[in-house]
């Protein structure tokens, strides 16, 4: 311990101020502040807006520490509101598919005069609005439940004197939280590796194209090809600007698949414009 103290003094290091509960370690009955972040004067000059946050324990006996080097823009971003984000866990709720079906049918009834591409985007916007309202009422959000559990656990852990009942409650809540965090991480993420896809592409490389190859490429795209391409996508990767990932379209193909394919084919085969979604 003396060596560590000498190291701190030798290099003129000082602890960063923090936000949150000061206790960073506990063994249920004893709490201590034993986790610190220290910096030099030159480092503080380099990152003058740095801030240290004491987060939750996340199942450990130590709190997680979060160091933000630059806070600029964080508050303004939150004021702008959250962008819509489709959550895969909604697929577990039977009501989700009814909401999509109803919204989609309602949107299509008002889009007869539009091109397939414009009709699809307009109907999809109505569907997104319906999902926002549905989620707000049902609160079927894994992220919301995780946040609620973290807050409840933090409140119980901040109590000065924790009795056996409170410790048992924390243990139960932590078990539920761990399960949700694991589920959020691995949900729908078992579709194979990118390395396999790369190998497949490399295996397909061959000699230059022949004339019949060019003729084949000039043929119009088909609905079945659009469907195959969609279902070959990894469902939870690279959601669009609208917040919808491939799982949304794959799992609702029976409702919107034909309209989706028509919209895509109108662009591919008829040289349609897609700048509306850029």
From TrEMBL:
UniProt-listed InterPro entries: Endo/exonu/phosph_ase_sf (IPR036691)
Name the UniProt record assigns to this protein: Uncharacterized protein
Source superkingdom: Eukaryota
Species this protein is from: Cannabis sativa (Hemp)
């Amino acid at each position: 311990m003396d060596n560590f103290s000498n190291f701190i003094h030798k290099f003129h290091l000082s602890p960063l101020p923090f936000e949150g509960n000061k206790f960073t370690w506990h063994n249920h009955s004893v709490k201590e502040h034993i986790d610190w972040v220290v910096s030099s004067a030159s480092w503080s000059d380099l990152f003058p807006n740095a801030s240290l946050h004491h987060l939750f324990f996340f199942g450990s006996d130590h709190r997680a520490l979060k160091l933000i080097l630059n806070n600029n823009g964080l508050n303004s971003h939150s004021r702008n509101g959250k962008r819509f984000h489709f959550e895969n866990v909604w697929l577990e709720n039977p009501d989700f598919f009814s909401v999509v079906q109803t919204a989609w049918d309602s949107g299509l009834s008002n889009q007869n005069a539009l091109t397939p591409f414009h009709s699809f985007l307009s109907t999809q916007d109505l569907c997104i609005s319906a999902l926002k309202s549905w989620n707000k009422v049902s609160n079927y959000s894994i992220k919301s439940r995780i946040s609620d559990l973290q807050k409840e656990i933090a409140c119980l852990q901040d109590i000065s004197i924790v009795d056996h009942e409170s410790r048992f409650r924390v243990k139960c809540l932590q078990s539920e939280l761990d399960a949700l965090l694991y589920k959020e991480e691995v949900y729908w993420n078992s579709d194979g590796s990118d390395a396999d896809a790369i190998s497949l592409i490399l295996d397909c490389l061959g000699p230059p194209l022949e004339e019949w190859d060019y003729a084949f490429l000039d043929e119009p795209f088909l609905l079945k090809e659009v469907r195959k391409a969609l279902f070959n996508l990894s469902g939870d990767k690279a959601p669009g600007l609208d917040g919808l990932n491939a799982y949304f379209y794959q799992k609702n193909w029976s409702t919107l698949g034909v309209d989706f394919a028509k919209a895509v084919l109108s662009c591919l085969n008829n040289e349609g414009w897609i700048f509306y979604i850029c």
